[in-house]
Design brief:
Layout (H helix, E strand, L loop, with lengths): L2 E5 L2 E3 L5 E8 L7 E7 L6 E6 L5 E3 L7 E6 L4 E6 L8 E9 L2 E4 L3 E5 L2
Amino acid sequence: QVQLVESGGGLVQPGGSLRLSCAVSGIIFNDYGMGWYRQTPGKQREFVAAMGSGEARSYADSVKGRFTISRDNAKNMVYLQMNNLKPEDTAVYYCNAHRFVQNYWGQGTQVTVSS
């Protein structure tokens, strides 16, 4: 059974930081690309960041220079370091594992940026 479990969300003031974590089980972790997406009510889920099994990373323009995705292949973990958070970053953040046509999602973790 494939499981992706996010943690680390919460309430933070503008300009603050959060680190999201995603624990992955049930797949051969090194074979999968990993990513983070986010969704707000009434909008489609949008891409935030992704990386393959190597070091290549990609980011949405809206988070470049503020967010960093990383993975620990020994621990089957993926992280999203979020700095200089803005109110428009408020969303439910989802962890994603993808390989060819396979796509797995976590249950999401809420991030709220507000003063």
